[in-house]
Amino acid sequence: MTRLPPPSAVKLGLVIDLDTCVGCHACVVACKGWNTQSDLGTPLSDQNPYGADPSGTFLNRVHSYEVTPPAGPTQQVHFPKSCLHCEDAPCVTVCPTGASYKRGSDGIVLVNEDACIGCGLCAWACPYGAREMDPSAGVMKKCTLCVDRIYNDALPEVDRTPACVRTCPAGARHFGDLGDPDSAISQLVTDRGGFDLMPEQGTKPVNKYLPPRPRDRDTAGDIDILAPLLAPVAADGKGLVAWLDRTLSKLPGGHG
Amino acid sequence: MHPAPSVITFTTLSGLGFGLLFWLGIGLPDPTGWVATAFFGLAFLLSVGGLTASLFHLGHPERAHLALTQWRTSWLSREGLAAIATLLIGGIFALTRVLGIPAAPLGWLVSLGCLGTVFTTAMIYTQMKTVPRWRHWTTPALFLALSLAGGALLANQRHPALVLLALCAVLQLVAWTGGDRRFAASHTTLATATGLGGIGRVRAFLPPHTGSNYLLQEFVYVVGRRHVLQLRVIGLILAFGLPLPLIAAGLSHITALVAVLAHVAGVLCLRWLFFAQAEHVVGLYYGKR
């Protein structure tokens, strides 16, 4: 049924910390791996993977942006992007077959691949590029919030989170109930000033992003706050390195 | 947006077919016998042919019947139902005309169904908040006007064709003028897309993948935009500029064929631009439009 259910009390989703993300793409690989071996749907296919023009279906991708503040140095921000499990999901209501749906119990947006005709309209309706048509399967693929992990009693409890969250080496991805204002993840959003992507599109995303923290400003004019710690070790004129420095400098052509 | 040939063929041909069926429905012209067979045959050939073409871009055409189930929320579903209902009633009406049985009210219902079908087709595009160029009243207005104008041309309705073709040209110019500014007016930018605009100026630095992907192929189509002016002029001349003086001078069989062919080629060009020129907001994430 492509009519949206009334807003659920439980809103499962992700919080992505743009301050901590190091842009390693481990979440991308873990997501691709899990959702290719999972029996929830068809595998995420690749086209021409070892050829000149490889491409493939991914449910999570990491962009990198350069942000230049009015004053101070430019920052690079790594930016993972996957389905935001929107409360007013436009991808659900446009679906002509009922394949695209939002769960009334926990707010997860899913695709019933057996009913998907591969018309692509849901991907058109999504402003975030969260849906990709799999050219091999001819059906629409999207983030399932690893619904086959988070409720899976066969897995150890520590693994009952989405694959991207479980694998993130920087702790930049958090999973939990954003419908509960007292949950750890909701507290994180409140404390850090979490925000929505493209709020003007009116999709009311469940997933939130945490802004990068302000950078330390170095007053000595160095390129980095750690620069003083990187000064030459032999500057005090003691030890083996200092002796080597003096001796080599005395040789013809040496730098004094 | 990627200009899929199947969707361009579908919207152009079925628009023309339902346009012709509209005029037949209101009895302009009101043929019987073999002439009715030819007129209705052409209308059904175009509309059904167009609808069949639309199935070719589906990943699973064998499940297409499921697309009729979600009419409560989905414009695509509504379009499917409207098209099938109109063609079914249209078939019965065609039979009454061929046999010469009077059934004018049934014809009016067919005409209403034609308008509904073309309107629901247009609403599939108009509803997309993600494509600001389409999200405007000019989209359904132009779809409807083009359908009726092409139908009038095929139905040999001289005065309605003249008025509607001129109206189409004006609507098309209004749609382009406003459409060119609508992406900026939507206030969706890389700053809102990333939420980083508060810190400073945002620029896409590294793409998430080295090759292409579905999103870039489907939503970031730049070829059409490079030759926009030339294509707009060609489209306008073929669709309206050529047929208008021909119709005004009075059509013979030869000039009617030229007018129809020029009009169809022009509408194909304009419809190609409708897709190829449309910018989807997801392109912002890639620093593209």
TrEMBL record, chain A:
Residues 196-217 are annotated as: Disordered. Gene3D superfamilies: 3.30.70.20. Keywords: 4Fe-4S, Iron, Iron-sulfur, Metal-binding. The keyword Acyltransferase does not apply. It comes from the Bacteria. GO terms for molecular function: 4 iron, 4 sulfur cluster binding; metal ion binding. InterPro entries: 4Fe4S_Fe-S-bd, 4Fe4S_Fe_S_CS, ET_IronSulfur_Cluster-Binding. Residues 12-31, 73-105, 107-136 form the 4Fe-4S ferredoxin-type domain. It holds the Pfam family Fer4_2. This is Fe-S-cluster-containing dehydrogenase component. It comes from Loktanella atrilutea. The lineage of its organism: Bacteria, Pseudomonadati, Pseudomonadota, Alphaproteobacteria, Rhodobacterales.
UniProtKB/TrEMBL annotation, chain B:
It comes from the Bacteria. Pfam families: DmsC. GO terms for cellular component: dimethyl sulfoxide reductase complex; plasma membrane. Keywords: Membrane, Transmembrane, Transmembrane helix. The chain crosses the membrane at residues 7-28, 34-59, 80-100, 106-125, 137-155, 161-179, 229-248, 254-274. The keyword Membrane applies. The keyword Transmembrane applies. It comes from Loktanella atrilutea. The lineage of its organism: Bacteria, Pseudomonadati, Pseudomonadota, Alphaproteobacteria, Rhodobacterales. GO terms for molecular function: dimethyl sulfoxide reductase activity. GO terms for biological process: anaerobic electron transport chain. This is DMSO reductase anchor subunit.
